[in-house]
Amino acid sequence: MSRNPFNNLYLAEEISADRYVSIFSPVLLRESETHLLFQPGSIILRGLQGSGKSALLNLLKPDVVLAYLKSDQGIPLPSHCAKFLSASVSIRNSGALDFGQRQFEQDRDKNNSIVGLYFADFLNYWIVDDLLKNLDFLASAPARPLMDFLCIDTSIEKLDEFAENVSKQDCWFGALRKVSDFRELRETIRKRVYEYDSFLNFNSELPNEFSNTKSKPGIPIGVVAEELKRAGILPHDVPIFISIDQFEDLMDLEKDIEGNFSTIFRSVIMRMLGSRDERVSYRVGARPYSLTTGLQGFGNNAFAEELREFHIVDMGALLRASETKGSLFPKFCDDVFRRRIRDAELETPKTKKSLVNYVFGTRYTPEEKVERFIGKRTNIVKIESEWPPSVGKYLAKLAIENPISAKLGEAWYRQNLSRRETSSNELSKNPWENRVWWKKERKQIALLQCFAASQQRLVWCGAADIVVLSGTNILVFLSICQFIWAEYLRSIDESVKTVPENVEPSIQTMAIMSASEYWFRKVKAEPKGGDDRHSFLGVVGEFFRNELRSDSKMSYPGANGFALSSSELRKAELIDQFLDDCVSFGALEKFRHKSKTKSRGQSTKWYLSPILTPFFQIPTPRTKEPFYASVADVAKWIDDANIFGYSANLATKRSNASDKKLTSQLDLDLEKDG
Amino acid sequence: MTRAEFQKLLRKWCQEDDSDFLGFRELKNFIEFLESVLFHEYAPTAHGDHGEFGARLARWIGSADSDANRQTLYLMLRNLIFIGQNEISASYRTAYSKIFLSWLIEQTDICVFDEGAADQLRQAQSSALFTQITDSFGLQFFLRANHLHGQNDRYTWEQDLPNWDRENFQQTRIVRQNRPDIQFIVLFEDFVGSGTQMAEAVCNACSLGNGFKILLCPLIICPEGAQLAEDLERRYENLCYRPVLGVASKFFIGENPIPDENREFAEIRQCLLDIHPKVMGGAQAQQNFGPFGYRDTGAFIVKYDNCPDNSVPAIHRRNGEDWHPLFFRTSREMI
Question: Minimal Cα–Cα distance from A569 to chain B, Å?
Answer without folding.
Answer: 35
